Amino acid sequence: MTGDQIIIFDTTLRDGEQSPGCSMNTKEKLEVANALVELGVDVIEAGFPIASPGDFEAVKLVAERFGDRSTICGLARSRPDDIAKAKGALESAEKRRIHVFLATSAIHREHKLKMDKDEIIRRAVESVKDAKEFCDDIEFSPEDAARTELDFLCEVVERTIEAGATTVNIPDTVGYATPNHYFKVIRTLKENVSNIEQAVISTHCHNDLGLVVANSLSAIEAGARQVECTINGLGERAGNAALEEVVMALRTRADYYGVHTKINTERLFPTSRLVSNITGMKVQRNKAIVGQNAFAHEAGIHQHGILQERSTYEIMRPEDVGYSGQNLVLGKHSGRHAFRDRVRELGFDLDDDAMQRAFDDFIVLADKKKEVYDSDIIALIDSRMVDAPDRWKLVSFHTSAGSSAIPTATLELQCDEAPVSCDAAIGDGPIDAVFRALERVIDLPARLEDFSVRSISQGKDAMGEVRVTINVMGRHYLGKGVSTDIIEAAARSYLQALNKADADRQSGGGDDAVEPPPQP
Ligand code: KIV
Ligand code: ZN
């Protein structure tokens, strides 16, 4: 291993969840937390316990289940109530951290907090001491540090370390920093804060100017030893530093940075896919490290070079990040064993029942489609993995549409053991008609807020994936469906979202809806 270890602090479940439209319910947060533990992240910021009862519960459950494997962190403003909530949520974690923050820049002091410098220092010190009574591992963030006067920033950092902070995080809250500027900020702290060696310096950057990863790496060069990041770069506004990009930059350029992380890089691609599925936030095709095109060589000269010697045009091996590409793998006559082996190679760990369901889906698909690609298998399994309480099941549907016909849908649904229910509706097109018919049968009016369709693999017989977000009585629900028929994929995605809303209706509320918590 090269040099110092960089602590990877993942905030997908906190800052990542603040991305517009990316809220997760408790079950989904636990799934992501499990993936982060498998990935090997050192610290998981599981949420902001005072933000809502749902956030509190999620942090508590993550702490209970995973607090012996990764450090679980809860966010708190510099207020006694916030810190008390964080303590309550983290109680059962063996490895726990409270992350306290208070803004320090002149803009925030004057306009948001209406506090002078002395008051900021007094509050920051008090809250670090309060948190310290609960655990040793305390992080303090001077919010908007990158726009804070350097001498004042040094003073705040020194005083909070004196009060017990073991990590001092230097947030570029509004994404204002540039690499040289941020380097200078971190270096100034290293050179001027007398007790800086008693704490780990951490970087927390935002991508408003598209410089988030560059700034984070610059901070490491200047001496930071913790990076705060999120899977796929999710986060407030333009997002936080993408964990996969920071980790692979440090690994690929270990010759230059001379540091290492404990991340199991082969889990990067599957974790990215899981987070994208759960949040509904797609990964752009040409996204570094985890985009579909990240390892696709189009130019003939490049392909030729790769065939001679991979390192001519490849600085990372796809398998090192768990990337599986679009290989043609199986067909109708591939057996159960070949399928199972491929599923494992793709990074899924399914129990016998889930494997059987996946195989059944694969056989149906292979009947419709000559060539089944890895991406088809991934989509089939992912669509089953979404934690949908599917009380209502699609039995059959029929649509008719055309340039001179009124688009109509009829469908049959099975609910638990009840007899099959059927209904029909007309709409603006066949998909709209299907959505209306589903709402009629389930008796749940919904507003469609987002609809997207994409092709999973290549060819005219490729599977289509439809994702929807619906709004039912002010709550948002995501749904996803895949099929070679996009009307069926749309029906399945809408039904999945309605099933989630129906489960909430049955339980008189519940937390399956994705409600954004108040922002820090
Ligand atoms: O961006 C920011 O300043 C934050 C703090 C709460 C650390 O997310
Ligand atoms: Zn942030």
Number of strands: 18
> What would you give as the CATH superfamily of the largest domain?
Aldolase class I
Measure the end-to-end span. 37 Å
Fold-level CATH name of the largest domain: TIM Barrel
Task: Report the CATH C-level class of the largest domain.
Answer: Alpha Beta
Fraction of residues in helices?
40-55%
Query: How do the strands line up in the largest sheet?
Result: 2-3-4-5-6-7-8-9
Percentage of β-strand residues: 15-25%
Shape: globular
**Total DSSP helices:** 17
Please tell me about this protein's structure.
With 520 residues, the protein is α/β, with parallel strands linked by helices. It folds into three domains: 7-279, Alpha-Beta Barrel (TIM Barrel), CATH 3.20.20.70; 324-385; 392-507, Alpha-isopropylmalate synthase LeuA, regulatory domain (Double Stranded RNA Binding Domain, 2-Layer Sandwich), CATH 3.30.160. The protein has helices spanning 26-39, 53-66, 80-90, 106-113, 117-132, 150-163, 179-192, 212-222, 243-252, 254-257, 268-279, 300-308, 336-345, 352-368, 374-385, 430-442, 486-506; strands at residues 4-5, 7-10, 43-47, 71-77, 96-103, 138-143, 167-172, 200-205, 226-229, 259-260, 328-330, 372-373, 392-402, 405-415, 421-426, 447-455, 464-472, 475-483. The strands form five sheets. Strands 2-3-4-5-6-7-8-9 form an eight-stranded parallel β-barrel, surrounded by eight helices. Strand 17 and strand 18 (475-483) form a beta hairpin. The protein is globular, with a radius of gyration of 25 Å.
